[in-house]
Amino acid sequence: MSSGCHARRLVTIATLSLLALGHIAGAQCANALAPSYEAPVVGDGYSAQLIVAGLSKPRSIIFDTNGALLVVESGRGVTHLDLSDGGGTCLAAKKTTVLINNSNLTHGIELSQDGKTLYASSANEVFSWTYDPAAVSVSNQRTLIQNMTNADHVTRTLLLSKKQPDILLVSRGSGSNIDDLATQQSSGISQIRAFNLTELAPGQIYDFPSNGKLLGWGLRNSVGVAEEPTTGGIYSVENSADQVHRLGTDIHEDNPGEEMNFHGALDGSISADSQGGNYGYPDCFALWSTSGVPSLGGLKVGSQFSLDNSGPINDSVCNSEYVAPRLTFQAHTAPLDIKFTPNGTLAYITFHGSWNRDTPAGYKLSAIPFSNGAPTAPPDSTTAAVDVLSNADLTACPGRCFRPAGLAIDAQGRVYMTSDSTGEIYVLQQTAVGTGTSY
Ligand SMILES: *[C@@H]1O[C@H](CO)[C@@H](O)[C@H](O)[C@H]1NC(C)=O
Ligand SMILES: *[C@@H]1O[C@H](CO)[C@@H](O)[C@H](O)[C@H]1NC(C)=O
Ligand SMILES: *[C@@H]1O[C@H](CO)[C@@H](O)[C@H](O)[C@H]1NC(C)=O
Ligand SMILES: *[C@@H]1O[C@H](CO)[C@@H](O)[C@H](O)[C@H]1NC(C)=O
Ligand SMILES: *[C@@H]1O[C@H](CO)[C@@H](O)[C@H](O)[C@H]1NC(C)=O
Ligand SMILES: *[C@@H]1O[C@H](CO)[C@@H](O)[C@H](O)[C@H]1NC(C)=O
Protein backbone atom coordinates (compact mmCIF):
# COMPACT_ATOMS: atom_id res chain seq x y z
CA MET A 1 0.00 0.00 0.00
CA SER A 2 2.91 2.32 -0.47
CA SER A 3 3.99 4.66 -3.17
CA GLY A 4 7.04 5.63 -1.18
CA CYS A 5 9.27 5.66 -4.23
CA HIS A 6 7.19 8.51 -5.63
CA ALA A 7 7.21 10.43 -2.39
CA ARG A 8 9.16 13.35 -1.10
CA ARG A 9 9.45 14.93 2.28
CA LEU A 10 7.27 17.81 3.38
CA VAL A 11 9.44 20.81 2.92
CA THR A 12 9.05 24.47 3.64
CA ILE A 13 7.57 26.85 1.14
CA ALA A 14 11.00 28.22 0.34
CA THR A 15 12.29 24.77 -0.58
CA LEU A 16 9.16 24.01 -2.58
CA SER A 17 9.87 27.07 -4.68
CA LEU A 18 13.39 25.77 -5.30
CA LEU A 19 11.86 22.52 -6.50
CA ALA A 20 9.79 24.60 -8.93
CA LEU A 21 6.58 22.82 -8.05
CA GLY A 22 4.79 25.94 -9.09
CA HIS A 23 1.40 26.02 -7.47
CA ILE A 24 2.63 27.40 -4.16
CA ALA A 25 1.77 31.06 -3.82
CA GLY A 26 5.21 32.55 -3.57
CA ALA A 27 7.72 32.39 -0.78
CA GLN A 28 5.83 34.68 1.61
CA CYS A 29 4.15 32.09 3.78
CA ALA A 30 5.01 33.92 6.95
CA ASN A 31 2.94 31.73 9.27
CA ALA A 32 4.24 28.37 8.04
CA LEU A 33 4.30 25.90 10.92
CA ALA A 34 6.64 22.95 11.28
CA PRO A 35 5.61 19.74 13.05
CA SER A 36 7.46 18.75 16.23
CA TYR A 37 7.99 15.24 14.80
CA GLU A 38 9.72 14.07 11.63
CA ALA A 39 8.35 15.89 8.57
CA PRO A 40 5.58 13.90 6.81
CA VAL A 41 6.09 12.30 3.41
CA VAL A 42 3.96 13.95 0.70
CA GLY A 43 2.63 11.84 -2.18
CA ASP A 44 3.52 12.49 -5.79
CA GLY A 45 1.54 15.37 -7.28
CA TYR A 46 0.68 17.04 -3.97
CA SER A 47 2.01 19.82 -1.81
CA ALA A 48 1.19 19.96 1.87
CA GLN A 49 1.51 22.35 4.76
CA LEU A 50 0.81 22.24 8.48
CA ILE A 51 -1.50 25.24 9.04
CA VAL A 52 -3.06 24.91 12.51
CA ALA A 53 -1.64 23.63 15.80
CA GLY A 54 -2.66 23.76 19.45
CA LEU A 55 -6.14 22.23 19.11
CA SER A 56 -7.42 19.58 21.50
CA LYS A 57 -8.29 16.28 19.76
CA PRO A 58 -9.64 17.78 16.52
CA ARG A 59 -11.82 15.22 14.76
CA SER A 60 -14.44 16.03 12.09
CA ILE A 61 -14.28 19.35 10.24
CA ILE A 62 -16.61 21.20 7.88
CA PHE A 63 -16.57 24.54 6.04
CA ASP A 64 -19.40 26.98 6.69
CA THR A 65 -20.92 29.20 4.01
CA ASN A 66 -18.48 32.04 4.90
CA GLY A 67 -15.40 29.86 4.41
CA ALA A 68 -14.65 29.34 8.11
CA LEU A 69 -13.68 25.89 9.28
CA LEU A 70 -15.78 24.36 12.06
CA VAL A 71 -13.82 21.81 14.08
CA VAL A 72 -15.11 19.26 16.57
CA GLU A 73 -12.60 19.21 19.41
CA SER A 74 -13.55 15.93 21.02
CA GLY A 75 -14.45 16.45 24.69
CA ARG A 76 -14.61 20.23 24.26
CA GLY A 77 -17.13 21.25 21.63
CA VAL A 78 -17.05 23.02 18.30
CA THR A 79 -14.42 25.60 17.42
CA HIS A 80 -14.76 28.19 14.65
CA LEU A 81 -11.54 28.89 12.75
CA ASP A 82 -11.18 31.94 10.55
CA LEU A 83 -8.40 31.22 8.09
CA SER A 84 -6.13 33.69 6.37
CA ASP A 85 -5.54 32.46 2.83
CA GLY A 86 -2.29 33.34 1.09
CA GLY A 87 -3.13 31.00 -1.78
CA GLY A 88 -1.90 27.48 -2.45
CA THR A 89 -1.16 25.77 0.84
CA CYS A 90 -0.22 29.04 2.54
CA LEU A 91 -3.03 29.28 5.10
CA ALA A 92 -3.13 30.04 8.80
CA ALA A 93 -5.64 30.37 11.61
CA LYS A 94 -6.46 34.07 11.87
CA LYS A 95 -9.00 33.87 14.66
CA THR A 96 -10.21 31.03 16.87
CA THR A 97 -13.65 31.21 18.53
CA VAL A 98 -15.40 28.71 20.79
CA LEU A 99 -18.71 28.20 18.95
CA ILE A 100 -20.17 25.44 21.14
CA ASN A 101 -18.79 24.70 24.59
CA ASN A 102 -19.96 21.13 25.24
CA SER A 103 -17.61 18.47 26.56
CA ASN A 104 -20.01 15.70 25.49
CA LEU A 105 -19.43 16.21 21.77
CA THR A 106 -17.21 13.47 20.36
CA HIS A 107 -16.78 13.49 16.59
CA GLY A 108 -19.67 14.12 14.22
CA ILE A 109 -20.58 17.45 12.59
CA GLU A 110 -22.81 18.50 9.69
CA LEU A 111 -24.35 21.64 8.18
CA SER A 112 -27.59 22.00 6.26
CA GLN A 113 -27.20 22.99 2.61
CA ASP A 114 -28.16 26.60 3.38
CA GLY A 115 -25.51 26.62 6.12
CA LYS A 116 -27.99 27.80 8.75
CA THR A 117 -28.49 24.62 10.75
CA LEU A 118 -25.56 22.94 12.47
CA TYR A 119 -25.57 19.33 13.65
CA ALA A 120 -23.20 17.61 16.07
CA SER A 121 -23.25 14.44 18.14
CA SER A 122 -22.38 13.09 21.54
CA ALA A 123 -22.12 9.38 22.32
CA ASN A 124 -25.82 9.42 23.14
CA GLU A 125 -27.45 12.15 21.06
CA VAL A 126 -27.59 14.11 17.84
CA PHE A 127 -28.21 17.82 18.37
CA SER A 128 -29.06 20.69 16.04
CA TRP A 129 -28.62 24.45 16.41
CA THR A 130 -29.57 27.49 14.39
CA TYR A 131 -26.21 28.78 13.16
CA ASP A 132 -25.31 32.36 12.25
CA PRO A 133 -21.99 32.25 10.35
CA ALA A 134 -21.61 36.04 10.35
CA ALA A 135 -22.18 36.48 14.07
CA VAL A 136 -20.33 33.20 14.79
CA SER A 137 -23.06 32.06 17.16
CA VAL A 138 -25.56 29.27 17.68
CA SER A 139 -29.02 29.27 19.22
CA ASN A 140 -32.02 26.98 19.64
CA GLN A 141 -30.23 23.78 20.65
CA ARG A 142 -32.47 20.83 19.95
CA THR A 143 -32.07 17.07 20.48
CA LEU A 144 -33.00 15.16 17.31
CA ILE A 145 -31.91 11.58 18.04
CA GLN A 146 -31.16 9.84 21.35
CA ASN A 147 -30.54 6.47 23.00
CA MET A 148 -27.15 5.72 21.42
CA THR A 149 -25.02 5.24 24.54
CA ASN A 150 -22.65 2.31 24.63
CA ALA A 151 -19.14 1.64 25.88
CA ASP A 152 -15.98 1.58 23.77
CA HIS A 153 -16.90 3.22 20.46
CA VAL A 154 -18.45 6.66 21.04
CA THR A 155 -18.22 8.46 17.69
CA ARG A 156 -21.61 9.01 16.02
CA THR A 157 -20.66 10.08 12.52
CA LEU A 158 -23.17 12.33 10.79
CA LEU A 159 -23.78 12.67 7.07
CA LEU A 160 -26.45 14.83 5.49
CA SER A 161 -27.25 13.58 2.02
CA LYS A 162 -26.76 16.11 -0.78
CA LYS A 163 -29.13 14.14 -3.03
CA GLN A 164 -31.88 13.84 -0.37
CA PRO A 165 -31.22 16.86 1.85
CA ASP A 166 -33.80 15.88 4.47
CA ILE A 167 -31.97 12.63 5.25
CA LEU A 168 -29.36 12.48 8.03
CA LEU A 169 -27.23 9.32 8.28
CA VAL A 170 -25.89 8.36 11.70
CA SER A 171 -23.29 5.65 12.24
CA ARG A 172 -22.98 3.90 15.60
CA GLY A 173 -20.27 1.40 16.50
CA SER A 174 -20.02 -1.52 18.90
CA GLY A 175 -19.74 -1.52 22.68
CA SER A 176 -16.73 -3.82 22.72
CA ASN A 177 -14.31 -5.59 20.38
CA ILE A 178 -16.66 -8.51 19.73
CA ASP A 179 -20.12 -7.27 20.71
CA ASP A 180 -22.78 -9.97 20.42
CA LEU A 181 -25.52 -7.34 20.71
CA ALA A 182 -24.71 -6.49 17.10
CA THR A 183 -26.48 -9.72 16.07
CA GLN A 184 -29.76 -8.24 17.36
CA GLN A 185 -31.15 -5.64 15.01
CA SER A 186 -33.19 -4.09 17.86
CA SER A 187 -30.00 -3.19 19.80
CA GLY A 188 -29.00 -0.47 17.35
CA ILE A 189 -25.37 -1.58 17.82
CA SER A 190 -23.01 -1.48 14.82
CA GLN A 191 -25.50 0.10 12.46
CA ILE A 192 -25.89 2.98 10.04
CA ARG A 193 -29.40 4.41 10.08
CA ALA A 194 -31.03 7.13 7.95
CA PHE A 195 -33.39 9.64 9.59
CA ASN A 196 -35.83 11.92 7.76
CA LEU A 197 -35.46 15.27 9.56
CA THR A 198 -38.47 16.79 7.77
CA GLU A 199 -40.73 14.18 9.33
CA LEU A 200 -39.54 14.99 12.87
CA ALA A 201 -42.32 16.99 14.52
CA PRO A 202 -41.37 19.85 16.87
CA GLY A 203 -40.53 18.43 20.29
CA GLN A 204 -40.27 14.89 18.95
CA ILE A 205 -36.96 12.95 19.30
CA TYR A 206 -36.01 9.90 17.28
CA ASP A 207 -34.95 6.76 19.17
CA PHE A 208 -31.86 5.49 17.37
CA PRO A 209 -32.43 1.73 17.69
CA SER A 210 -36.09 1.74 16.69
CA ASN A 211 -36.55 4.72 14.35
CA GLY A 212 -35.05 5.66 11.02
CA LYS A 213 -34.28 3.37 8.12
CA LEU A 214 -31.59 0.72 8.49
CA LEU A 215 -28.89 1.27 5.84
CA GLY A 216 -26.68 -1.51 7.12
CA TRP A 217 -25.98 -3.60 10.22
CA GLY A 218 -23.17 -5.93 11.28
CA LEU A 219 -20.85 -2.92 10.74
CA ARG A 220 -18.44 -3.06 13.71
CA ASN A 221 -17.44 0.60 13.80
CA SER A 222 -17.95 2.38 10.50
CA VAL A 223 -16.63 5.81 11.43
CA GLY A 224 -16.37 7.20 7.90
CA VAL A 225 -19.53 7.62 5.79
CA ALA A 226 -19.79 9.46 2.46
CA GLU A 227 -22.13 9.94 -0.51
CA GLU A 228 -20.51 9.47 -3.90
CA PRO A 229 -21.41 12.73 -5.70
CA THR A 230 -22.21 11.47 -9.20
CA THR A 231 -24.45 8.49 -8.35
CA GLY A 232 -25.47 9.17 -4.74
CA GLY A 233 -24.08 5.79 -3.64
CA ILE A 234 -23.30 5.62 0.08
CA TYR A 235 -19.90 4.22 1.09
CA SER A 236 -18.61 3.64 4.62
CA VAL A 237 -15.24 2.61 6.03
CA GLU A 238 -15.19 0.12 8.90
CA ASN A 239 -12.76 -0.47 11.73
CA SER A 240 -12.68 -4.23 12.09
CA ALA A 241 -11.83 -6.45 15.06
CA ASP A 242 -8.69 -6.84 17.16
CA GLN A 243 -6.98 -9.94 18.63
CA VAL A 244 -8.58 -12.28 16.10
CA HIS A 245 -7.80 -16.02 16.04
CA ARG A 246 -9.03 -18.53 13.49
CA LEU A 247 -9.30 -22.20 14.41
CA GLY A 248 -7.01 -21.49 17.34
CA THR A 249 -4.31 -19.77 15.28
CA ASP A 250 -3.47 -16.14 16.05
CA ILE A 251 -3.99 -14.28 12.77
CA HIS A 252 -4.43 -10.79 14.22
CA GLU A 253 -1.29 -9.17 12.81
CA ASP A 254 -2.71 -8.87 9.27
CA ASN A 255 -6.35 -9.86 9.72
CA PRO A 256 -9.16 -9.10 9.54
CA GLY A 257 -8.96 -6.32 6.97
CA GLU A 258 -10.54 -2.92 7.47
CA GLU A 259 -13.46 -2.57 5.05
CA MET A 260 -15.01 -0.18 2.59
CA ASN A 261 -18.68 -1.10 2.32
CA PHE A 262 -21.32 -0.02 -0.15
CA HIS A 263 -24.90 0.74 0.87
CA GLY A 264 -26.59 1.73 -2.37
CA ALA A 265 -28.17 5.11 -3.04
CA LEU A 266 -30.74 6.63 -0.70
CA ASP A 267 -33.33 6.87 -3.49
CA GLY A 268 -32.95 3.12 -4.09
CA SER A 269 -31.66 3.71 -7.62
CA ILE A 270 -28.62 1.45 -7.15
CA SER A 271 -27.90 -1.72 -5.27
CA ALA A 272 -31.14 -1.97 -3.33
CA ASP A 273 -30.09 -5.56 -2.56
CA SER A 274 -27.35 -4.76 -0.10
CA GLN A 275 -29.12 -1.77 1.45
CA GLY A 276 -30.25 -2.66 4.94
CA GLY A 277 -28.22 -5.87 4.72
CA ASN A 278 -26.00 -7.47 7.32
CA TYR A 279 -22.30 -6.87 6.65
CA GLY A 280 -21.10 -9.70 8.90
CA TYR A 281 -19.84 -8.48 12.29
CA PRO A 282 -19.43 -10.13 14.75
CA ASP A 283 -19.74 -13.47 12.88
CA CYS A 284 -17.98 -12.79 9.59
CA PHE A 285 -14.84 -10.78 8.85
CA ALA A 286 -12.99 -9.83 5.67
CA LEU A 287 -9.66 -11.40 4.81
CA TRP A 288 -6.72 -9.07 4.21
CA SER A 289 -3.74 -11.43 4.21
CA THR A 290 -4.09 -15.04 3.11
CA SER A 291 -0.69 -15.87 4.61
CA GLY A 292 -0.71 -18.26 7.58
CA VAL A 293 -4.51 -18.51 7.64
CA PRO A 294 -5.57 -22.04 8.60
CA SER A 295 -8.11 -23.84 6.42
CA LEU A 296 -7.78 -21.16 3.74
CA GLY A 297 -9.79 -23.11 1.14
CA GLY A 298 -10.87 -20.78 -1.64
CA LEU A 299 -10.70 -17.61 0.46
CA LYS A 300 -8.97 -14.62 -1.10
CA VAL A 301 -8.46 -10.98 -0.17
CA GLY A 302 -11.87 -9.50 0.67
CA SER A 303 -13.59 -12.88 1.21
CA GLN A 304 -15.67 -13.13 4.35
CA PHE A 305 -14.55 -15.75 6.85
CA SER A 306 -15.78 -17.04 10.19
CA LEU A 307 -13.45 -17.47 13.15
CA ASP A 308 -13.96 -21.22 13.49
CA ASN A 309 -15.47 -22.18 10.11
CA SER A 310 -17.94 -24.49 11.82
CA GLY A 311 -21.38 -24.10 13.32
CA PRO A 312 -24.25 -22.38 11.56
CA ILE A 313 -22.21 -19.42 10.30
CA ASN A 314 -19.26 -20.97 8.47
CA ASP A 315 -17.18 -19.46 5.66
CA SER A 316 -19.62 -20.38 2.94
CA VAL A 317 -22.56 -18.87 4.84
CA CYS A 318 -20.45 -15.74 5.49
CA ASN A 319 -19.93 -15.38 1.77
CA SER A 320 -23.45 -16.21 0.64
CA GLU A 321 -25.63 -14.61 3.32
CA TYR A 322 -23.69 -11.47 4.32
CA VAL A 323 -22.71 -8.40 2.33
CA ALA A 324 -19.04 -8.49 1.33
CA PRO A 325 -16.87 -5.36 1.42
CA ARG A 326 -16.28 -3.45 -1.82
CA LEU A 327 -12.62 -3.01 -0.81
CA THR A 328 -10.45 -4.31 2.02
CA PHE A 329 -7.49 -2.49 3.61
CA GLN A 330 -4.50 -3.49 5.75
CA ALA A 331 -5.68 -4.74 9.14
CA HIS A 332 -5.75 -2.24 12.06
CA THR A 333 -5.09 0.86 9.95
CA ALA A 334 -8.31 2.38 11.40
CA PRO A 335 -10.07 4.38 8.66
CA LEU A 336 -11.89 7.33 10.24
CA ASP A 337 -13.13 9.57 7.45
CA ILE A 338 -13.93 9.35 3.76
CA LYS A 339 -14.56 12.36 1.53
CA PHE A 340 -15.07 12.42 -2.24
CA THR A 341 -13.74 15.05 -4.61
CA PRO A 342 -16.58 16.98 -6.33
CA ASN A 343 -16.46 14.96 -9.56
CA GLY A 344 -16.18 11.65 -7.71
CA THR A 345 -12.86 10.53 -9.20
CA LEU A 346 -11.12 10.16 -5.83
CA ALA A 347 -12.13 9.27 -2.31
CA TYR A 348 -9.74 10.44 0.38
CA ILE A 349 -9.54 8.24 3.48
CA THR A 350 -7.82 9.00 6.78
CA PHE A 351 -6.13 6.00 8.38
CA HIS A 352 -5.73 6.84 12.07
CA GLY A 353 -3.22 4.03 12.61
CA SER A 354 -2.88 0.73 14.44
CA TRP A 355 -2.38 -0.31 18.05
CA ASN A 356 -3.04 -4.06 17.70
CA ARG A 357 -0.08 -4.79 15.44
CA ASP A 358 3.61 -5.40 16.16
CA THR A 359 4.65 -3.06 13.36
CA PRO A 360 2.54 0.10 13.26
CA ALA A 361 0.42 0.48 10.09
CA GLY A 362 -1.78 3.26 8.74
CA TYR A 363 -1.04 6.73 10.16
CA LYS A 364 -1.64 8.25 6.75
CA LEU A 365 -4.01 9.92 4.35
CA SER A 366 -4.71 7.86 1.24
CA ALA A 367 -6.70 8.31 -1.96
CA ILE A 368 -8.81 5.69 -3.73
CA PRO A 369 -9.46 6.24 -7.45
CA PHE A 370 -13.16 5.99 -8.38
CA SER A 371 -14.92 5.85 -11.72
CA ASN A 372 -18.65 5.70 -12.49
CA GLY A 373 -19.50 5.65 -8.81
CA ALA A 374 -17.27 2.71 -7.85
CA PRO A 375 -13.62 2.12 -6.96
CA THR A 376 -11.54 1.34 -10.05
CA ALA A 377 -9.75 -1.44 -8.13
CA PRO A 378 -11.43 -4.85 -7.83
CA PRO A 379 -12.63 -6.11 -4.40
CA ASP A 380 -9.59 -8.38 -3.97
CA SER A 381 -7.11 -5.55 -4.58
CA THR A 382 -4.38 -4.87 -2.02
CA THR A 383 -3.19 -1.72 -3.80
CA ALA A 384 -6.37 0.37 -4.04
CA ALA A 385 -5.19 2.96 -1.49
CA VAL A 386 -2.52 5.37 -2.71
CA ASP A 387 -0.51 7.32 -0.12
CA VAL A 388 -1.05 11.08 -0.07
CA LEU A 389 0.43 12.09 3.30
CA SER A 390 2.20 9.59 5.52
CA ASN A 391 4.50 9.47 8.51
CA ALA A 392 8.17 9.17 7.65
CA ASP A 393 8.96 6.51 10.26
CA LEU A 394 6.13 4.20 11.32
CA THR A 395 8.24 2.78 14.14
CA ALA A 396 7.93 6.21 15.82
CA CYS A 397 4.12 5.86 15.85
CA PRO A 398 1.93 6.59 17.66
CA GLY A 399 4.22 8.69 19.87
CA ARG A 400 5.95 10.98 17.39
CA CYS A 401 3.51 10.87 14.48
CA PHE A 402 0.45 12.65 13.21
CA ARG A 403 -2.79 10.65 13.38
CA PRO A 404 -5.29 11.47 10.60
CA ALA A 405 -8.90 11.93 11.70
CA GLY A 406 -11.30 14.30 9.89
CA LEU A 407 -11.36 15.66 6.33
CA ALA A 408 -12.87 18.61 4.48
CA ILE A 409 -12.42 19.86 0.92
CA ASP A 410 -12.74 23.58 0.12
CA ALA A 411 -14.15 25.28 -2.97
CA GLN A 412 -10.68 25.25 -4.59
CA GLY A 413 -10.33 21.50 -4.05
CA ARG A 414 -7.77 21.81 -1.28
CA VAL A 415 -7.95 18.97 1.25
CA TYR A 416 -7.88 19.70 5.00
CA MET A 417 -7.00 16.94 7.45
CA THR A 418 -7.05 16.95 11.24
CA SER A 419 -4.59 15.01 13.37
CA ASP A 420 -6.26 14.45 16.73
CA SER A 421 -3.24 13.23 18.70
CA THR A 422 -1.14 16.26 17.78
CA GLY A 423 -3.95 18.85 17.73
CA GLU A 424 -3.13 19.87 14.17
CA ILE A 425 -4.63 20.58 10.77
CA TYR A 426 -2.80 20.04 7.48
CA VAL A 427 -3.79 21.31 4.07
CA LEU A 428 -2.96 19.52 0.83
CA GLN A 429 -3.24 20.65 -2.73
CA GLN A 430 -2.96 18.59 -5.86
CA THR A 431 -0.23 20.22 -7.95
CA ALA A 432 -0.10 17.77 -10.83
CA VAL A 433 -1.95 14.80 -12.15
CA GLY A 434 0.56 11.98 -12.11
CA THR A 435 0.65 8.74 -13.99
CA GLY A 436 0.83 5.05 -13.16
CA THR A 437 -0.22 4.17 -9.63
CA SER A 438 -0.51 7.84 -8.75
CA TYR A 439 -2.81 10.22 -10.51
C1 LIG B 1 -17.06 25.83 29.01
O1 LIG B 1 -17.99 25.39 29.97
C2 LIG B 1 -17.38 25.01 31.17
C3 LIG B 1 -18.41 24.36 32.06
O2 LIG B 1 -19.63 25.00 31.95
C4 LIG B 1 -16.71 26.24 31.79
O3 LIG B 1 -16.05 25.88 32.99
C5 LIG B 1 -15.68 26.79 30.82
O4 LIG B 1 -15.12 27.98 31.30
C6 LIG B 1 -16.31 27.05 29.47
N1 LIG B 1 -15.25 27.35 28.51
C7 LIG B 1 -15.35 28.34 27.63
C8 LIG B 1 -14.20 28.51 26.72
O5 LIG B 1 -16.33 29.04 27.57
C1 LIG C 1 -23.29 16.15 29.10
O1 LIG C 1 -23.98 14.94 29.38
C2 LIG C 1 -24.34 14.80 30.74
C3 LIG C 1 -24.93 13.41 30.89
O2 LIG C 1 -26.01 13.24 30.03
C4 LIG C 1 -25.30 15.92 31.12
O3 LIG C 1 -25.63 15.82 32.49
C5 LIG C 1 -24.63 17.26 30.86
O4 LIG C 1 -25.56 18.31 31.09
C6 LIG C 1 -24.17 17.35 29.42
N1 LIG C 1 -23.40 18.55 29.19
C7 LIG C 1 -23.75 19.49 28.32
C8 LIG C 1 -22.86 20.67 28.22
O5 LIG C 1 -24.77 19.40 27.63
C1 LIG D 1 -33.20 2.46 23.95
O1 LIG D 1 -32.78 1.40 23.13
C2 LIG D 1 -32.96 0.12 23.71
C3 LIG D 1 -32.37 -0.88 22.74
O2 LIG D 1 -31.00 -0.71 22.75
C4 LIG D 1 -34.42 -0.14 23.98
O3 LIG D 1 -34.57 -1.39 24.62
C5 LIG D 1 -34.98 0.96 24.86
O4 LIG D 1 -36.37 0.80 24.99
C6 LIG D 1 -34.68 2.32 24.27
N1 LIG D 1 -35.04 3.37 25.22
C7 LIG D 1 -35.92 4.29 24.94
C8 LIG D 1 -36.16 5.30 26.01
O5 LIG D 1 -36.51 4.37 23.88
C1 LIG E 1 -39.04 13.01 4.25
O1 LIG E 1 -40.30 13.28 4.81
C2 LIG E 1 -41.07 14.25 4.10
C3 LIG E 1 -42.31 14.50 4.93
O2 LIG E 1 -43.00 13.31 5.15
C4 LIG E 1 -41.38 13.71 2.72
O3 LIG E 1 -42.10 14.65 1.98
C5 LIG E 1 -40.07 13.38 2.02
O4 LIG E 1 -40.33 12.76 0.77
C6 LIG E 1 -39.21 12.45 2.86
N1 LIG E 1 -37.92 12.30 2.21
C7 LIG E 1 -37.47 11.15 1.73
C8 LIG E 1 -36.15 11.17 1.05
O5 LIG E 1 -38.08 10.12 1.85
C1 LIG F 1 -21.95 -24.38 6.22
O1 LIG F 1 -23.13 -24.22 6.97
C2 LIG F 1 -24.30 -24.46 6.20
C3 LIG F 1 -25.49 -24.03 7.06
O2 LIG F 1 -25.38 -24.55 8.36
C4 LIG F 1 -24.35 -25.93 5.79
O3 LIG F 1 -25.48 -26.18 5.01
C5 LIG F 1 -23.09 -26.21 4.98
O4 LIG F 1 -23.02 -27.59 4.69
C6 LIG F 1 -21.84 -25.79 5.73
N1 LIG F 1 -20.72 -25.89 4.81
C7 LIG F 1 -19.58 -26.50 5.14
C8 LIG F 1 -18.52 -26.51 4.11
O5 LIG F 1 -19.43 -27.01 6.23
C1 LIG G 1 -12.04 15.48 -11.79
O1 LIG G 1 -11.48 16.59 -11.12
C2 LIG G 1 -10.05 16.61 -11.12
C3 LIG G 1 -9.60 17.74 -10.22
O2 LIG G 1 -10.22 18.93 -10.59
C4 LIG G 1 -9.56 16.76 -12.55
O3 LIG G 1 -8.15 16.75 -12.58
C5 LIG G 1 -10.08 15.58 -13.35
O4 LIG G 1 -9.73 15.75 -14.70
C6 LIG G 1 -11.59 15.47 -13.25
N1 LIG G 1 -11.99 14.21 -13.88
C7 LIG G 1 -13.13 14.07 -14.53
C8 LIG G 1 -13.38 12.72 -15.12
O5 LIG G 1 -13.96 14.96 -14.60
| Overall mean confidence score, pLDDT | 92
Bulk shape:
globular
List the bound ligands. Answer: 2-acetamido-2-deoxy-beta-D-glucopyranose
Q: Output the number of helix runs.
A: 2
List the helices and strands and how they pair.
Elements (H helix, E strand, L loop, with lengths): L7 E2 L3 H6 L22 E2 L3 E7 L5 E6 L5 E5 L3 E9 L5 E11 L3 E7 L5 E6 L3 E7 L4 E10 L9 E5 L6 E6 L18 E6 L9 E2 L5 E5 L6 E4 L5 E6 L6 E2 L2 E2 L7 E8 L19 E2 L17 E2 L9 H7 L5 E3 L5 E6 L5 E6 L12 E8 L2 E2 L10 E5 L13 E6 L5 E5 L4 E7 L9
Parallel strand pairs: 11-15
Antiparallel strand pairs: 1-2, 2-29, 3-32, 4-5, 5-6, 6-7, 8-9, 9-10, 10-11, 12-13, 13-14, 14-16, 17-18, 18-21, 19-20, 21-24, 22-23, 25-26, 26-27, 27-28, 27-29, 30-31, 31-32
The structure holds 2-acetamido-2-deoxy-beta-D-glucopyranose (NAG) (6 copies).
InterPro entries: 6-blade_b-propeller_TolB-like, Beta-prop_PDH, Quinoprot_gluc/sorb_DH_b-prop, SMP-30/CGR1_Lactonase
Keywords: Signal
Protein name: Pyrroloquinoline quinone-dependent pyranose dehydrogenase beta-propeller domain-containing protein
